Amino acid sequence: MLTYEKLSRRPGTFRRLTGVSVGVFSEMAGKTDPLWEKRRNNYDRGGRNHSLPGVENHLPAMLIYHSCHVTYEFIGFFFNCDESAVMRTVLKRWPSG
Hints:
Organism: Desulfonema ishimotonii
Distance between the termini: 32 Å
Shape: globular
Structural class: mainly alpha
Strand content: under 5%
Low-confidence stretches: none
Helix content: 55-70%
Number of domains: 1
Protein name: Transposase Helix-turn-helix domain-containing protein
Largest sheet: none
């Protein structure tokens, strides 16, 4: 399964797949993490756990989708989750501010 930890060990590959460097990604994740936690806590009413745990794994999936224009099934294969989970991740509207 592709995770942020595995991908970040290869900075060149990380940049080619996502379109941003590991440093820029860390800044992006740092800024979106509070919003992610706020949204996650709002919907924390039970149900299934996310196939892609944490913002640091959701964000690469979204960046790879937008950078490479591949199918949801393709990304789901590499992140070891169903294509519907990727679709929800990519289409999710991130709260602002």
